[in-house]
From TrEMBL:
This is Aldose epimerase. Pfam families: Aldose_epim. It comes from Microvirga ossetica. Signal peptide: none annotated. InterPro entries: Aldose_1/G6P_1-epimerase, Gal_mutarotase_sf_dom, GH-type_carb-bd, LacX. It comes from the Bacteria. GO terms for molecular function: carbohydrate binding; isomerase activity. One of its GO terms (biological process) is carbohydrate metabolic process.
Amino acid sequence: MSVRIASPQLSAEVSETGAELIRLQDEQGRDLLWDGDPAFWTGRSPLLFPIVGRVRNDRIRVGDAEYELPRHGLARTSPFDIAEANPSRCRFSLRSDETTLERYPFPFQLDVTYAIEGNTLTIEAAAINPGSAPMPVSFGFHPAFRWPLPYGAPRETHALRFEHEETAPIRRPVDGLIAREVYPTPVQGHSLPLQDSLFEKDAIVFDDLKSRSVEYGAPDSGTIRVDFPGMPHLGIWTKPGAGFICIEPWQGYADPEGFEGEFADKPGIVVIPPGQSRAFTIAITVDSKGF
């Protein structure tokens, strides 16, 4: 089952499986989101919780125990309850149960709200700790946008434009973990021209990011801006030759190579006290006028 929300400028469809955005269209019905072609990747915009990426040996350590936790965590394959469904807003909820506690030993509630106003879709995920112990968690968004966008510009003219100049080195995954080695940033001032060769070694990971906004598109063509206040990390990813580019704001990232510590000590983890919550938000704004 899915829920559709809309404004005159934008429409979205969200699945109850994973509370995943599965369609995003502009005012002319043009698809902006990847279609999940299994020849490349079946995802469209999964939510990453309570980890981003992979943990070492796919296991986390909490105290004296270890728990098997798959890449990107539990939420993306879990059935959410539809808590609210209005013409321009919907909310989904996931609560821990016996199955989740076998992999992530913390009671939780994850509420995900989608709201459209004008040409902007806002997504807020609230991780709630109903338990009696601190809850360590990461969270990530993983939207895959069409590359090229459906505005007529050639694929090779598309680029990302960062809010600030990004001069810090980047990192790369190795077998799903973050390599010790750092690489010079491919960002040229504010701009990252997109080409398949950037992704021959998997994703680009910004773990020392200045920007909290990225614009994607081509000159004299439509663009998509992704704002992510409060999200300190960013992944950019595709499979070479595929028709999508993922712009992924994260709180946290995969285990660094050699990390063997407690889950709560993993880089990028935030700890939510008992009875409290932490919100993670992005806003996706569509502009048909372009750069």
